[in-house]
Amino acid sequence: AAACAIVRTVLALGHSLRIPVLAEGIETSAQWRFLLGEGCDKGQGYHFARPVPLAQLPVTRDAATALALAEMRTAAACETMAIAAA
Questions:
Q1: Which of 4, 31, 58, 82 has the most crowded CB, counting CB atoms within 10 A?
Q2: Is-above-0.70 flag for pTM?
Q3: Residue partners of 27: CB distance under 8 A and separation at least 6
């Protein structure tokens, strides 16, 4: 609970200053969904991609982008359902 409060406070501070907020160290889809739900602008971490050799970077980038887009669609669909249910 305390960690969530800290994250919410940092997000609110960044947004009040009109500074995009990037979360570092995201390791699970649950963490990313929480951050998206709280209005986090961007994220990075092992959930999206592990360190790779430079030659492998384009393939890894494409896979990470596809994962992020799919999760953003899922989060948007959940938000739409919550609004419709209200």
A1: 31
A2: no
A3: 45, 46, 47
Q: How far is CA 40 from the centre of its chain?
A: 6
Q: What's the first-to-final CA gap in the chain, in angstroms? A: 25
Largest CA distance in the chain: 49
Burial class (CB in 10 A: 0-12, 13-18, 19+), 35: buried
Query: 1-44, pLDDT tens digit by residue?
Result: 899 999 999 999 999 999 999 999 999 999 999 999 999 999 99
Amino acid letter at 12? A
Instruction: Round to whole Å and give the CA distance between 61 and 39.
Output: 23
Q: Which of 22, 25, 27 is nearest to 11 (CA)?
A: 22
